Amino acid sequence: MKASLVLISEDNNWGVKWQNDLKGVGFKVHLVLDSEQLDRELVGEAPEVILIAGELPFVLEMMTRLGDEPAFPVIILQRLAKTADTVMAFQYGANEVVSGNITIEELNARIVSLIRLFRRIMDGHSDELSFEDLRMELKSRKVFRAGELIRLTPKEYELLRHLLKRVGEVCQREAILQEVWGYDFATGTNVVDVYIRHLRKKIDKGRPRKLIHTVRGTGYIIQ
């Protein structure tokens, strides 16, 4: 799964349609139909994006429920995105307002872009990166799995940080080479694969839950 989303829909049929489309491109989607259900949903697993599908009064009611500064990026889906409604939605804290006839391919791209942006913002305000029982302290450069200190080389640390900043996203080998090794190697090198093997021995070996996974022909993902 790419990420967990909450989809708040004024209309059940429209909500189910978007829920199925979003699941089809890999998202975990929780469909919510009213404010009380939204409150219950936000008590559990924190979503990475909230989508609100409906007319302006419903949208503003849900935005008010989320507060002045929502902790998650918010995308508004409207059947007809009128200029005045769009402006009002932005004033209430929306990050994107799109028309209901948007393709799932474009919506997918917008969601992924927002997630990437918010993760970078959060990284700048956080002293650590974590996923499940794997934790990286950015200031001390220490890494722990289930409380156990994992000793990494500088390159292993940078590679793991690259993956942890993109939990749930496929990290392509070329992008890893660019960020971690700075284009020092030709595209035919297997240095990424070698270092992934090193990381797996230190992070996953001997543990029932494996965190680093291969996406054949593309790269790697933590999930």
Under CATH at level 1, the class of the largest domain stands as Alpha Beta
- In terms of quaternary structure, the protein is single chain
Mind describing the biggest β-sheet?
Answer: 5 strands, parallel
Strand order of the largest sheet: 2-1-3-4-5
Tell me the overall shape: elongated
The CATH architecture of the largest domain comes to 3-Layer(aba) Sandwich
Cα-to-Cα separation, first versus last residue: 8 Å
Taken together, the total number of domains comes to: 2
Keywords: DNA-binding, Phosphoprotein, Transcription, Transcription regulation, Two-component regulatory system
DNA-binding region: 126-223
Protein name: DNA-binding response regulator
Domain OmpR/PhoB-type: 126-223
Describe what this molecule looks like in 3D.
One of its GO terms (biological process) is regulation of DNA-templated transcription. This is DNA-binding response regulator. Residues 126-223 bind DNA. 43% of the residues lie in helices and 22% in strands. The protein has helices at residues 12-24, 35-43, 56-66, 83-91, 104-125, 154-164, 173-181, 191-203, and strands at residues 4-9, 28-32, 49-53, 74-78, 96-99, 128-131, 134-137, 142-145, 148-150, 171-172, 212-215, 219-222. Strands 2-1-3-4-5 form a 5-stranded parallel β-sheet, with helices on both faces. Strands 6-7-8-9 form a 4-stranded antiparallel β-sheet, covered by helices on one side. A hairpin with a 3-residue loop joins strand 11 (212-215) and strand 12 (219-222). The protein is elongated, with a radius of gyration of 20 Å. The model has no long low-confidence stretch (mean pLDDT 85).
